[in-house]
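Hi U.,

Before I forget, here's the chain from the pilot set. I'm dumping it here mostly so it's searchable later in email.
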Amino acid sequence: MMKRFLYVVEGKTDCDKVKKSGCKYVIETNGFGSVSRETIFINEVLAVREVVLFFDPDGSGKKIFEYIENHVDQEKKKNLHRIEIKKNLAVKKGKVGVAEARLDSVKDCLKEYLKLEENVEEEELSFNDLVLLNLTGPNSSDR
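Structure:
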């Protein structure tokens, strides 16, 4: 089965690294700073697409994952996936994170999902999709 995923990472450099690995739809939480707002969006996306969480292998990454997992609707959790990169593959100059990992290590972590995305034909969003995501209709201006 071919499908597209939304990938969620911590920061801009993580986002760049994951996009370079071949992922098309990537958003960042900016660390723990905007995770509550992003969790609302992730919860809405889970209605139409599976979401892959790929955070740094440190305490902050674990806290962000736990926050998101605890704040998405229970029935949508089956569409929520977590990828972990081994800490020893994600260290460079004393910094730990996805951005510090080699591109081939990141691709290796994502390969299961990237394989499912190969040759996926893009579907256009319908008006109903926009309503489901609260991008139009009542309360859409709140976003």
